[in-house]
Amino acid sequence: LHRRIYQMQVTAPATTVGSTSFNYSFSYLCLPDDKNVCIVDDIIRAMEEIQSARTSNQSVPILQYPITQLEDGRQAYIGHQLGGVQGWGPGGAVRGHGTGAKGEGVRSAKAVQLTYYLQSRSGLMDRVAGQWEKAFCSELSLFGALHPKLGLYPSTSSSLRTDFQFSSVLARRPLLASLGVCGVLAILCCSMRDCVRSKPWLGMLALLSVALSGLTAAGILNLTGATYNSTYLGIPFVMLGRS
């Protein structure tokens, strides 16, 4: 999968008359390090070293968890890149998932997280990076169809915006139910035994104003094409709490 993603190319259309289109791969769009090499996850480098050792009939290096050692002597933390790890116990015994001790060799893992970093230098690179992300999701769909036993879950910079745009269709009933519960709670919190001092409509108007302001902000983000951030997800709850 990593090899297919690394070799995947997207075509940028010609920007001016007479110019030709150009194919961009990950090696051109990636975020480089101080040695001008694409930044990739350490688990990929460790797996490449294991594959290279097997190909050349050499001793296979031990993949330790959560910190493993690479061929260049660097200590790499892979605790956030593997999930459901099963390690080797004393005497070669197999430990259960999640029961491996620190520094033991990895026998298997249920999940692997791979992250690909793209750089943004200009408007053209932003558009090409957006095309690459779409091609990335399509490539994972094709790879998942060829390997049905694998569960692939892509996440890009536009995933939050796409999920939010589909939330009105996918979460219509839960959203209406949540608004109904919030409306009842707002009325109850502003109600009192004294009919003169009781202000149930005030709670309803406060909830209505918060809902309209949240929808207006989301609409502005959609219309302007702003980049979504995970911190935006908690803003409606903060607004409800302050109201």
UniProtKB/TrEMBL annotation:
The lineage of its organism: Eukaryota, Metazoa, Chordata, Craniata, Vertebrata. Residues 192-243 form the SSD domain. Belongs to the patched family. PANTHER family: PATCHED DOMAIN-CONTAINING PROTEIN 1, PATCHED-RELATED. Pfam families: Patched (PF02460). It comes from the Eukaryota. Its main location: membrane. The chain crosses the membrane at residues 175-192, 204-223. PROSITE patterns: SSD (PS50156). It comes from Goodea atripinnis. The keyword Transmembrane helix applies. It is a multi-pass membrane protein. Keywords: Glycoprotein, Membrane, Transmembrane, Transmembrane helix. This is SSD domain-containing protein. The keyword DNA damage does not apply. It is found in: Membrane.
